[in-house]
Amino acid sequence: MNAPIFSDPLVVRHSQRLIASYRHWTGRPLIPDDASTAIQARMLFHHPSPVLSHNAQADPILNYGNAAALHLWDMTWDEFTKTPSRLTAEPVAREERARLLAEAAKRGYLDQYRGIRISRTGRRFVVEGAVVWTVLDESGVIVGQAATFDRWTYVTEGRV
User: Which of 13, 85, 99, 124 is most buried (CB neighbours < 10 A)?
Assistant: First the structure.
């Protein structure tokens, strides 16, 4: 039997980076932080709001998606973590997405972002109230960016 992905030591470590970086930039907890790292990794993976991140490459690749994000983007963990982050937005929305990520990188985080995203299967949805933050490692080095949001609406043709 395979262990759940959230119990993988690398995923546990990355979960801690996501949680600590969110608190660092926003001053708020992403999840309750009074549990062990393993329990926090499980809580983050099963959080009802999508949580996702990408690495710090020039063309970033997604490196984390909790169960809600995997469901929303219609992907498995393996598919998700091999996907260029830019592909989460439609081609016409990628310039705005790039501007958002640059602003978040400059400030450390931003909130109340709204934008259209697209799943692997072509389902379009509007994300509202998203928080985007810079992910730091244990030494304070930037290792990527992450996002979470608790409001999204599927788009029907002709309506945004």
Answer: 85
- Closest residue by Cα to residue 6 from 58, 61, 49, 65: 65
CB 113 within 8 A of CB 143: no
Instruction: Name the average pLDDT for the chain.
Output: 92
Q: Is 40 left (phi over 0), alpha (psi -120 to 50) or beta?
A: alpha
Cβ atoms of 17 and 139 within 8 Å: the answer is no
Q: Specify the 3-state DSSP secondary structure of 106.
A: helix
pLDDT of residue 101: 75
pTM of the complete model beyond 0.90 = yes
Domains and CATH numbers, the chain: 5-154 (3.30.450.20)
**Residue given tokens 């996501």 in the structure block:** 18
Distance, first Cα to last Cα, the chain? 43
d(CA 148, CA 115): 13
Alpha-carbon torsion 137, 24, 116, 46, what sign? positive
